[in-house]
What does this fold into?
Amino acid sequence: MLFASDNWSGASPRVLSALATAAAAGGPAYGADAWTKKVEGRLAEIFEHEVTVLPVGSGTAANTLALSAFARPGGIVFAHAQAHIATDEAGATEFATGCKIEPVRASQGKLLPGALAEAIAAHGGGVHHGQPVALSLVQLTELGAAYQPAEIAALTALARRYGMGVHMDGARFANAVAATGASPADLTWRAGVDILALGGTKNGCVAAEAIVVFGGGVGRDLAFSRQRIGHGFSKAWFIAAQLDAYLADGHWLELARTANARAADLARAIEASPQARLAFRPDGNEVFAILEAGADRRLRDAGAVYYAWSAAGLPMESTPGAGEVLVRLVTSWQTTAAEVAAFALRLSG
Amino acid sequence: MLFASDNWSGASPRVLSALATAAAAGGPAYGADAWTKKVEGRLAEIFEHEVTVLPVGSGTAANTLALSAFARPGGIVFAHAQAHIATDEAGATEFATGCKIEPVRASQGKLLPGALAEAIAAHGGGVHHGQPVALSLVQLTELGAAYQPAEIAALTALARRYGMGVHMDGARFANAVAATGASPADLTWRAGVDILALGGTKNGCVAAEAIVVFGGGVGRDLAFSRQRIGHGFSKAWFIAAQLDAYLADGHWLELARTANARAADLARAIEASPQARLAFRPDGNEVFAILEAGADRRLRDAGAVYYAWSAAGLPMESTPGAGEVLVRLVTSWQTTAAEVAAFALRLSG
Amino acid sequence: MLFASDNWSGASPRVLSALATAAAAGGPAYGADAWTKKVEGRLAEIFEHEVTVLPVGSGTAANTLALSAFARPGGIVFAHAQAHIATDEAGATEFATGCKIEPVRASQGKLLPGALAEAIAAHGGGVHHGQPVALSLVQLTELGAAYQPAEIAALTALARRYGMGVHMDGARFANAVAATGASPADLTWRAGVDILALGGTKNGCVAAEAIVVFGGGVGRDLAFSRQRIGHGFSKAWFIAAQLDAYLADGHWLELARTANARAADLARAIEASPQARLAFRPDGNEVFAILEAGADRRLRDAGAVYYAWSAAGLPMESTPGAGEVLVRLVTSWQTTAAEVAAFALRLSG
Amino acid sequence: MLFASDNWSGASPRVLSALATAAAAGGPAYGADAWTKKVEGRLAEIFEHEVTVLPVGSGTAANTLALSAFARPGGIVFAHAQAHIATDEAGATEFATGCKIEPVRASQGKLLPGALAEAIAAHGGGVHHGQPVALSLVQLTELGAAYQPAEIAALTALARRYGMGVHMDGARFANAVAATGASPADLTWRAGVDILALGGTKNGCVAAEAIVVFGGGVGRDLAFSRQRIGHGFSKAWFIAAQLDAYLADGHWLELARTANARAADLARAIEASPQARLAFRPDGNEVFAILEAGADRRLRDAGAVYYAWSAAGLPMESTPGAGEVLVRLVTSWQTTAAEVAAFALRLSG
It folds into this structure.
């Protein structure tokens, strides 16, 4: 009953096997290897577009580098208040880009176009305020929702109007593709996304993320930016080999579908319980639930692992009442039906 | 005949096996795992000292973070002109710490105490110049020499006198321990080193370095600095598991001894050849040789891989003449006696 | 009827005369002049405390440097959402310190201790969030209120408990001293303030601010930080001479008292008008008023200059209704009774 | 006998009068004043080119901002080892741009095209080294020479070939114009300079420098960069008024001609003395001389003020022998013939 985070999961056997093969062999350093080249080819095919790809070792690295491509003096990045870049990266964006992150109101983590327009208007008033430089979206959102292509396009159109770049934090992009059924292309460049931080780590890799740049120009500078934060690894094939196996034959989507299915099972169990309810309807592999204190205690006593979540800024119906607690339950490709069943059993008392 | 760099090598079977075991299992994220704890214990024992350990994924990350612990406004870091931090990290130190790197004259990469004293005197003259904050040593040096404990102590004493911190870039620290026979403690804190960037990647790991802090205080801030350059990996056990196997039962020194022995064989072959000579006597696993152009061509035609090296700043006897070329040959734990023999054969024509 | 900002004002004759005298003479560069020494003496006397003083040319420089003294990796600075550092300095704090500014709820710009406690609690949760490093107060607040010593002490006690430094943006500190009648010492170090950015520019100087450090240690580093943003002026006496005349014989408070008195007159005129009301009761030289659209138009047609102000986050009673507008009116030492009378006349229709 | 630096000088009466007039009046803040507009017009005329002008308060600010316009990740700036940006700005360039400064060999401070070509070649080798982004020239050089237009063009052509921007530190640009007789246009944009930091402070202003941008694009971002280092002054007219008077009617060149003439007198006195010789033939207002120890002592005893200078890197003939000292003597618009005569008298014993 490990629902703390999908980053507690192990590596999928196919990914692990590719990593082990590459690691035993070694090869030319700093990305001059065959794996790195193959990954770029795979991503071009998957996204139906020419891409520049920079493999890195963590989501924080991927996000901060992607945003650095849009950074300008006095830059303002618009994002959700609970976005990973705003709350979980120890100020990486401020440190590496000098930019400031401005929160935008949202529904289940999806930014509201009206709120984005307001926020831009409030922060584009001249040299004192700084200048809007980037819109940063999270797919799946921090609250478990999947953006639809049209929702993305509505937001990026606003960004475009103000000359801003668009970054997508795709730590759970695979889960969003699996959830929406939309194509990777429709969820990114066709909807106006300039750079995607494509996650692998949470979904079957050990440590593997890819910065995917649609449209040229920024690639060369990103290589320098990557080098100076130490993500231009000498044995770069250790990431590329993971990504190669991860992306081959739709393995990444298969893993995400499993995780999503387990989350759906979990959601059903919660809905069926008189001592629990959903805070949000989950689209992917994150379930936000409101538990009665007794149920929460019972589950934890039985060894279930998950985090309590802050309800700050959430609507009434997603906020716990007295004697209740808001929790986040995350499934992964490794979550078993048995784990979910055990959870459901304990939940029902 | 791969002598390009030890970072072309694969992972040692013991390291790889530990990595695979950890990767299959997964576990608590962000360093709250059992491997990370074990590594700290091992390093305390190896260095005979309490240590704070921060595993990271690359040498550039380890170096820049270690130096950030000493950074102050207008800071000046003294180092060898060819130090990795000066020439191979795309300005990571300048970017992350705002400090400037000031070159110090050296002999086979070992800084000369007199030259260090001069450099400090020339750059400590007040608010315009900036303030000396750190001394950065490389062990093995960029030119293949191993510092003896007394040589380190002579330099760190100068640093101490000016209130500077001391960083050691130990990308090839294992090779230096193997070469000198001195204890890890004698080569670091007992000789005045404050923070060691201990390398694993070049010597049998896939991507694993450890920032080893002797003496307290800076540990807490380093964790934040690490997080914001994306080296606070969620699946931190993927590095810790490598380091654990690397450090267990003296495996790291065993690997280094092999690499050093192969380099010694290589050096002998070069000395024996009428068409080649040593630019420096190698202490560890890096051999700098001056080859006649014909020998160089012959070796490359036969598939030998190695880099030509700049002779800028080197003494007369280490500088190639007309029709000669200076090259660097690096061995690793994976280099075989057969490879060296093949090289020797081609060299002799 | 210039009420746009006190930074539209000219220099007071005494300040201007001192500046001219110094400027004609010249003298030793970079602060080795007699004026700079005198200013430090004056401030020690005024604040009844040993101080380190760094004159700079602008409030943005003073604030960013003061905060840099507290900066640590992943640092979080707590401040009012409309604080100058948050909205008017083009991201200077993020750029120069890498820290992030976290907004705290307030009443008329005075931070609420309960809200500060909550904000710290929400942002001190470990390496992902970052670490609280500084509390930044504005005196007068952005909304025209003056903190009383006890109010400051209640906030700084919280900061102290979490090991944070305390910065006070005193762009209108003179107005606050004049408004509260409290001593400079009671409003700063006795109430727990570590560094004050003492304003001169808005209150009779041309370009002169002083970073006043209570308690040692940080002074030396600040000199380097100042140098590298170009506020270590060669002809440093041009600032010191202004400050010297500004601080002599209570001139600074005399100027502030005039500005405050004019604001009080203005407030009375607004209260007396049926077409206007005060959004807040002004303590110093900033008046926030809600005008009927007709009155606003009449005033502007007559040449009155002032800014409309955002009501975002303000309480109901300070928020304009339909057909109303919130405006800020700032008086200065140069504002005349005649200007206020003319304003009152137009306001009454 | 004040020859320490031209930044010890006072303000010229015309500049001071303009400053006083502006300071008494006040006016719209942040550059929306009439003076700022006038300065842009004057500079367009003087440089025979459309220009974007950003007045700032110090040379360090002007240089670091100008270079920030060219900054890219891993950026390398090529400059003289004794350039102000390399030795006198407390690491402002490294701090604000993250770039590293690479020294280039020179003759009397003028970079040698061959040496520049070598330096670029040595530092353009890929992602590890970083990327060449800017060439920074100093006019007058740190050693008192004036570049001729053709000399500038030869260097900027190299910069252009590698896609680098060109910055000129013109702290003593007026002296160079006066020395060469070349037009401001010929010495800048016609010779390939992109951004000039035009000095006023050393030549009759109190604190006034102008960033002069030839060719568009970078202007808007510079305004943000300037704001966040606190050089977007609220009372921006205090700089603009100085520059306006400084540039009117050729006053700036008149001042520079006086300073240069005094330096020429000084040089003649040195050449005439058996106890002194010129280290370099001066072009402008900086005289580098080698004095016998006795003469040096006699002059200092008589109250002469000047700095000893480092001979590091200088050619044989400019290096002091035993019992000699290298000194720098700087004249300004305020230096009198009597001061020079007194110096000559003491020098002759």
